[in-house]
Write a structure and sequence with these properties.
The protein is of the alpha+beta class. The protein contains three helices and five strands. The chain has one domain: Trna Endonuclease, Chain: A, domain 1, CATH 3.40.1350.
Length: 82
C-alpha cells in the first residue's frame, strides 16, 4: 500500500493510492472503510493516477480541493505491506 499521512493547516489526513477503477466503483466507500484500521480517526482520501500520472482524488471535499492545488509528488509518500 502506498500512502501519505499529511498534517496541513491543523488537519491530519491519509492519502491512499488505489487503481483508477476503484474510484468509479459502487464500492468506493467500502474500499475507503477498509483502510480505517491503518489510519484510525483521520479522514482517508483515495487517489488514483491516469496513464500520464495525473491524480484524481476521492473523499472529503475540502481536502480534495486542497490536494488538487498542490503537486502530489511533494506529499510524504511511504509504502506499507497491507
Amino acid at each position: 500500500m502506498d500512502y501519505a499521512l499529511v498534517k496541513e493547516q491543523g488537519v491530519t489526513f491519509a492519502v491512499v493510492v488505489v487503481k483508477s477503477y476503484v474510484l468509479k466503483s459502487d464500492d468506493v466507500e467500502e474500499v475507503r472503510a477498509s483502510y480505517r484500521p491503518y489510519f484510525p480517526g483521520v479522514p482517508i482520501i483515495l487517489m488514483a493516477q491516469d496513464l500520464r500520472g495525473v491524480p484524481t482524488y476521492h473523499g472529503r471535499k475540502d481536502i480534495v480541493k486542497f490536494l488538487s492545488r498542490i503537486d502530489h509528488r511533494r506529499l510524504p509518500w511511504k509504502r506499507k505491506q497491507a
